[in-house]
Fold this protein.
Amino acid sequence: MNRHHWWRDAVIYQVYVRSFLDSTGDGIGDLAGVRAGLPYLRKLGVDGIWLSPFYPSPQHDHGYDVADYRDVDPVFGDLAEFDRLVAAAHRLGIRVLLDIVPNHCSSEHPWFREALAAAPGSPERARFHFADGRGPDGGEPPNNWHAMFGGPAWTRVTEPDGRPGQWYLHMFTPEQPDWNWREPAVAAEFDRTLRFWLDRGVDGFRIDVAAGLFKHPDLPDSPDPEADARTRDSVNPLAWNQPEVHGVWRHWRAVCEEYTARDGRERLLVGEVSVPSAREHAKYVRPDELHQAFFFDLLGAPWDADAFRKVVSEAMQDIAGTGSTVTWVLNNHDQVRTVTRYGEPAEGSGLGAARARAAALLMLALPGAAYIYQGEELGLPEVVDLPDDVLTDPIFRRTGSRARIRDGCRVPLPWSGQASPFGFTSGTESAKPWLPQPEYFAEYATHRALADTRSSWHLYRDGLQLRAALHQLGEGSLHWLETQPGVLAFTRGDDLVCAVNFGTAPVPAPVPGTPLLASGPCPPGELPGSTAAWWIDGS
């Protein structure tokens, strides 16, 4: 637990709590379920877990609409259960990161309720972005911004006297009003929240929408108002990535360093940072700001050797150049699962699985840290045929479109058995998980994966074991090798080669008798000068 700078090459497992393991039989995963699953994660070999929000919430966006930042929603447990979870994780050498949501809260947060009851211009409203509407009767929104999840980014309120009143800003849904970080009371409140959880022993925070928080002070019109909704990404330069946000991260870093100085246990800040380039991304991980920020470009790269090489090279140049390490990610709770994303139906169902396995090993061979989304180690595909009447994603509710909805990657995990609920819930077989599991999940159940040495689970476990055992892996640098088209190869240190087949070319493999982690059907050949190799075939 006291390895110096543990986070620089850590592998963290994202636990989407409501879909991990249900201990109560209500069909929703909970903190006690996470605690029960810790031995499984220890066996897999991860260094830590990141817990999705479990705070009190009306669940309009499954916990990312927080009503109380310093408690546990009863559906997930209570603070005593949280303390037991942290203690159990630490006994197993697993660190615990919490998901904190500083850009917005729930419309049921006490402070927002106070703002609705207060008058325009009041201190209560200053904590949020309230503004008068445009037009003769104030009936038009204050600007033309659109929300990430569809529709206008503004909602008009009814004033306490019953008249139509001001508008408030919400860059996601109307149930998620944005905080106004230009108001000092907001920063002070989050200071209290950080310290509350740090005092309970957490090892750090994953920061939601870390490039948000500050909006342009004048709230002007955007030249492309629908950019965020169209791309479902934070691209409006007036609403995201304002320079003042870096002051927040410098302060939060100082708070973490204060706790580290007390007991020598480093606390981690990792940000969800969506910005236009690796160079802009690098500003968030300067030595006195965030320790890490997710580098999403690898996730978004097409399955192409040249594209992957370009993404990795830019990250190593711009991000690693700050003194931080790159934080690689292939998936999370907002993305189509890797097996489905890489698959091409016309070429057979196995293609996506082969590519997903290759991408996972490539990620684990790269310098820096890596984050794994739950179920990826099982090779789970996206559930693409959920009926409309079970969909819960606010994107679907607000747009009526199934495009880019996120329910398909959030279906509860299969643990055992041949039929739903596949051991996910402690209730009877008639107990229904909060999202229905397809019959084919039986093929991916954890008990089958652990018993089959050819499974994706063993691929991940073996990769993590080699990563821990081979000093060349983890933190460090890489050197590209010249290869034939469709092949990506690099060295880690002087005596380890990672070779990835993006096409169908036969890729040489290591000198006989050297360590080898193989994925795929292509036969090995020879890699001159290597004493170890990481052979990956995504063809």
